[in-house]
């Protein structure tokens, strides 16, 4: 990945310090309790995150009919799976999947801010919110993907999907070669958040 989308460790420390100070103030004012933040973090660590998206992608890889349903009506297809309650809640109300293949590679961005399908991808990384990434990916997606280490062949079309509060996109990457006979659980382990954003491809271990 290009150094353009990396940040110094100090940024994490500064943001953590700000968050801790804000948390202390909100607790002092009685807006939240000391357990509120831990509850929210635990929610995203165990219930809402890229592990959900990976399960949906793995299901789509082994079940062509499910893949069609996932692309045609993403919320309904997601509801078929044994996911925690709340998948259609905050940040997941209007999810839409697009599938790579047939000479097409998909990339998701958010030119306005950082709209993102949290239930299936977790929290967005810093670089996704970076103004440089947001603007350049819209103008020159092939060049930006190359900086991420993904050299998309010239004969493959790149489609860029702009997420918003009305619709939040994610990508169904192509199934890696050499994965025949693998279980859905094994396949899910090959799916990364980056591959579901379109800045990488899924690879066999």
Automatic annotation (TrEMBL):
Pfam families reported for this sequence: NHase_alpha (PF02979)
Keyword field: Iron, Lyase, Metal-binding
Nitrile hydratase alpha/Thiocyanate hydrolase gamma domain mapped to chain residues: 15-200
Top-level taxonomic group: Bacteria
Any one Gene Ontology molecular-function term assigned to this protein's record: transition metal ion binding
EC number: 4.2.1.84
Official protein name in the record: nitrile hydratase
Reaction catalyzed: an aliphatic primary amide = an aliphatic nitrile + H2O
Binding site for Fe(3+): 110, 113-115
Family assignment from sequence similarity: Belongs to the nitrile hydratase subunit alpha family.
InterPro entries, per the entry: CN_Hdrase_a/SCN_Hdrase_g_sf, CN_Hdrtase_a/SCN_Hdrlase_g, CN_Hdrtase_asu/SCN_Hdrlase_gsu, Nitrile_hydratase_asu
Gene that encodes it: nthA
């Amino acid at each position: 990945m290009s150094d353009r989308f990396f940040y110094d460790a100090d940024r994490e420390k500064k943001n953590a310090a700000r968050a801790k100070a804000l948390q202390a103030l909100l607790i002092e004012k009685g807006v939240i309790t000391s357990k509120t933040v831990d509850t929210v973090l635990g929610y995203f660590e165990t219930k809402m995150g890229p592990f959900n998206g990976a399960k949906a992608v793995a299901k789509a890889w082994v079940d062509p009919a499910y893949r069609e349903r996932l692309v045609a009506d993403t919320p309904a297809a997601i509801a078929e799976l044994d996911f925690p309650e709340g998948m259609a809640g905050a940040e997941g109300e209007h999810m839409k999947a697009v599938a790579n293949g047939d000479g097409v590679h998909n990339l998701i961005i958010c030119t306005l801010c950082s709209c993102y399908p949290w239930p299936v991808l977790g929290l967005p990384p810093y670089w996704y919110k970076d103004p440089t990434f947001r603007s350049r990916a819209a103008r020159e997606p092939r060049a930006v993907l190359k900086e991420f280490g993904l050299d998309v062949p010239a004969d493959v079309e790149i489609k860029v999907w702009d997420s918003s509060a009305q619709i939040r996109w994610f990508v169904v990457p192509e199934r890696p070669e050499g994965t025949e006979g693998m279980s859905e659980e094994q396949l899910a382990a090959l799916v990364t958040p980056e591959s579901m954003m379109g800045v990488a491809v899924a690879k066999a271990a």
